[in-house]
Design brief:
Pfam families: PadR. One of its GO terms (molecular function) is DNA binding. Keywords: DNA-binding. This protein is an alpha+beta fold. Helix content is about 60%, strand content about 15%. The protein is built from 4 helices and 2 strands. It has a two-stranded antiparallel sheet with strand order 1-2. A hairpin with a 2-residue loop joins strand 1 (about 60-65) and strand 2 (about 70-75). Helix 1 (about 5-20) packs across helix 4 (about 75-100) and helix 2 packs across helix 3 (about 40-55). It is globular, with a radius of gyration of 15 Å. The protein starts with a helix and ends in a 5-residue tail after the last helix.
Length: about 100
């Protein structure tokens, strides 16, 4: 993915947003990100999910269906707090980037 370092923060926030709405799993998240123009491989996404879980933003559980299993992720209270903090910053940044002005 071009500009991966710059866009990684947006991807993390996108993950956190969906994890706050409900359970998500890796392949679904890859497809959801692709709908928004992000091309993220499993080799990029899964370490990101694991790191977000280690840092306390996400929690996961294994769901079994027959012989298959899937790891589902959801936002923790700490993750919801982080998302709320980020939403204010996103609004501020959006206004500044779209207007082309710097208020600071």
């Amino acid at each position: 993915m071009q500009h991966q370092e710059l866009l990684a923060g947006f991807i993390r926030l996108h993950i956190l947003h969906h994890a706050a709405v409900g359970d998500l799993y890796g392949q679904w998240m890859i497809e959801e990100l692709a709908r928004h123009g992000y091309r993220v491989s499993p080799g990029t996404l899964y370490p990101m999910l694991h790191a977000m879980e280690r840092k306390g933003y996400l929690e996961s559980r294994i769901e079994r269906t027959g012989r298959s299993q899937r790891r589902l992720y959801t936002a923790t209270p700490y993750g919801l707090e982080g998302l709320a903090a980020a939403q204010g910053k996103i609004r501020e940044l959006f206004r500044e980037v779209v207007s082309g002005r710097s208020d600071g």
